[in-house]
Amino acid sequence: MLSRKDIAEVYRLGLTIGMFSVDQVVEWADSIIAVEDNPEFALIEVSTNGDATEGKMATLLRDVQGEVDARTARNVIYGLLGRKLAADRDAADTVAAQAKAVQQGEGVHGEVGDDLAADLGRHEALAAAWDSHKG
Question: Apex CA 55: angle with CA 117 and CA 8, to 5°?
């Protein structure tokens, strides 16, 4: 069984690759809030930010309490992508791009992890050289 934090991480990853919508995440948070006497603040934040971008919502999901098993969350995403491909072979390009984004730790909807940002930042000198060739 997945923990609440693992579920939040699956939604976070799914948002960053276009697998889930902000509305789906809000519905999940609302379903928990509806049955708990004292829901955690992070879920209330998720619930009340239905107009947030995917990147902003992904950031809010990081605040859900608990320990996350990143491997489990990625494996859930891979399983869901496998189901998507099995149901629609025409979705192969989309599924491949989504799987690659998860594998590389990239968000494609507004969330870039610190590691990726730092790695990209190391290439600034080359980017500046590219700019200088254009005159």
Answer: 105
- Rounded Cα distance between 104 and 63, Å, is 22
Helix axes 70-87, 4-16, angle to 10 degrees: 50
- Chain center to CA of 48: 18
Tens digit of each residue's pLDDT (9 = 90 or more) over 3-32: 899 999 999 999 999 999 999 999 999 999
Query: How far is residue 13's CA from residue 98's CA, in Å, rounded to a whole number?
Result: 10
Identity of the residue numbered 47: S
CA distances from 88 to 74, 105, 117, 133 (A): 21, 25, 33, 45
Q: What is the value of pTM for the model shown?
A: 0.77
Q: In angstroms, how far is the first alpha carbon of the chain from the final one? A: 58
pLDDT at 108: 44
